[in-house]
Amino acid sequence: MNGSNSILQGSVAHRGWTSVVDPVTKLLMALDLALLSFCFTNLLVEIALVFVALVILLISKAGKSAVHAIEFSSFLIFTMLIIQGLFYSHNQTLLVSVVGIRFYQEGLLYAATMGCRIFVIILATSFFMTTTTVSENSKYLEQVGLSYKAVYVLMSVCYILPEMMANMKKIQMAQRARGINQQKTILEKIKSILPVLVPLVIKTLDQSMERSIALRLRGFNSPHRVTLKSANLYRHEMVNHRGLSLLAIILIGWKLWIIGSKFI
């Protein structure tokens, strides 16, 4: 027994840090980063949080998977900067004028702050998605006492967006192979998303139905179902859970206190 334990400990020591951190700890880390971004309104602090989230993602060697999500959100943030810079309700200080179009400091700062928050959420979510698998999350959540039906619903919601993005890529590649939906400019890329939506939704729903039928055939609803144990050996689970949960509660209370103080 002592020899097998030493072998397990030695294998854990050679694994990356993300493999010895349980999924709930990773999820709480992502949640705390997102809550931190909403607790502060200073742009420099928001930029620092984006940098921290980016470093965590790069250290986990999962940076490439977040590139497409960042590219997609960058267009949204750029549009937000233009709209808020022009039409923000608290605009007073003129920052720059381009061909008679005036951009104000207050609107640009507000849009930049919101954009940093979006980046923090995307980077934190990408870290969780790319460092944990569906099977790992499912096994661990069942082990901590969550119902397997609730686990299935939660995992389906968490992983439906990556699944839809993968399906969209396949549909677009199939359309290009047939000589349609050619994308040369940014405007054409934006317009090409609309024709993809209908087959994308149909394909995603079809995959969900096939998955549901396969689970039923494998006895997913069986009352004698046995929970599989995870082969991973995690470190300091309860300490991480309690510490990060306490931090999340403090951040939520702090934000509620800030909101409530405005009405006093």
From TrEMBL:
Instruction: Describe its membrane topology.
Output: Multi-pass membrane protein
- In terms of one coarse class, where is the protein primarily found? membrane
Per UniProt, the keywords (alphabetical) are: Membrane, Transmembrane, Transmembrane helix
Transmembrane segment boundaries: 33-59, 65-87, 108-130, 150-168, 243-260
Per UniProt, subcellular location reads as: Membrane
UniProt KW Phosphoprotein keyword: no
Recorded protein name is: Cobalt transport protein
